User: What shape does this take?
Amino acid sequence: MERALLDKAMNDFDSLTSKQHESLQSLLGSFGMYAVPRKANVRQLLIGTARHQLLDTPAPFIEQIKLGIPQAFRDVFWSVLTLSAVDYLFRQQLPTPEKVQAVVQAAEEHLDQFICRLDQNELGLFLHFVTGSSVMPDKISVTFNQLAGELRRPIAHTGTLQHVLIVTRIEERIHGHSQQHTLLSDEYGVIT
Assistant: This one.
């Protein structure tokens, strides 16, 4: 959700709703950036936030680690670490339908079908809803409830990595579509 908001802020700032603008301010504030984001400064605010989080904050810790590693080992490590190697490692950590299916503990074929239809961005949203993070977990327990009417909704227990999905007899055949609309809707938001 945050990534989509940041992409929209950088590419089409004028189309942000007031709620999205508040979310952007809140997100930046959570990283110590309290300037009001505007079209003219949003890119610099994001670059400053990224620099602070990725370089400035961990720098003292990294310097301490370096003290315990002999210079020869550091030279070898940095000589073989390339941007393509980092990219490869990053891509290996991304969720895929197969990886998500492997950690979901449920005997429901339509859930597997639903997961198979998700693209990379939707898999991240699904994992974020289920676990509170887009990082691949070791397991996701899934149970099904019989809620109906206004009570009918997906329920995620992010602390225990348990996801409760809705199943009714009438909607079993369209369950995947119904669930996808709910989970990936901008109106639904994130449950943590």
